[in-house]
Amino acid sequence: MNAQDIQVGARLPERHITAVNAEHIKQVALVLRDSNPIHFDLDAVAKAGLGDREVNQGGSTMAYVLDLVTEWAGSRAALRTVSCSFRSNVFAGDDVVVGGEVTAITEDAAGALVECTVWAETNGRRAIQGSATVAVPRRKAR
């Protein structure tokens, strides 16, 4: 991707996560030493009034967003800023759609800083809403 190829209003290609895996949620809790039982104990989920499925870590849902942005930008090195708010939970078994849209472009000699809104949606609601800025190089003259 080159700075010349991007326009305000362009949408990032959506990413679909099918059926968030309960076992993955539990594994992430172990790796992070996250002792919050809503990630692995269904009784705790019910007692918290959250239903009957494990709750995905907010950071894992945000990682879906970061993966989309860095893949679209071409590398993790392109990511300059990210800011997200966590608005609702994602549960085991949920399908998640991750997307974004270019909102501003600031050009310079090296290329452009591209600002985007980003999100993760599940069950008709935005679980994450935020913004990201990536650096995109200018196409080299031949």
TrEMBL record:
Xref: InterPro entries: HotDog_dom_sf, MaoC-like_dom, UPF0336/Enoyl-CoA_hydratase
Family matches, as Pfam families: MaoC_dehydratas
Coiled-coil parts of chain: none
Source taxon at top rank: Bacteria
Signal peptide boundaries: none
GO molecular function terms noted in the UniProt entry: (3R)-hydroxyacyl-[acyl-carrier-protein] dehydratase activity
An annotated GO BP: fatty acid biosynthetic process
Gene3D superfamilies per UniProt: Hotdog Thioesterase
Ranges for domain MaoC-like: 19-109
Entry-linked PANTHER family: HYDROXYACYL-THIOESTER DEHYDRATASE TYPE 2, MITOCHONDRIAL (PTHR43437:SF3), HYDROXYACYL-THIOESTER DEHYDRATASE TYPE 2, MITOCHONDRIAL-RELATED (PTHR43437)
Family: Belongs to the enoyl-CoA hydratase/isomerase family.
Protein name (record): Acyl dehydratase
